[in-house]
Amino acid sequence: MTVGLMNIRSILVPALLIAGSCSAADPAFPEAHISNGAITAKLLLPDAEKGYYRGTRFDWSGQIESLKTKEHEYFGKWFDKYDPKLHDAIMGPVEEFAESIGYDEAQVGGTFVRIGVGALKKPEEPRFERFKTYDIADHGKWSVKKGKDSIEFTQDLGGHNGYSYKYTKRISLAKGKPEMVIHHTLKNTGKKAITTTQYNHNFFVLDGEPTGPDASVTFSFEPRPTRPMPDGVAELRGTQIAYLKELPKGQSVYNEFEGFGKTASDYDIKVENKKSGAGVRIQGDQPITKMVYWSIRSTLCPEAYIALNVAPGAESKWTYHYTFYDTRKQ
Question: In principle, which of 147, 186, 323, 330 could form an S-S bond with 281, CB 3.0–4.6 Å?
Answer without folding.
Answer: 323
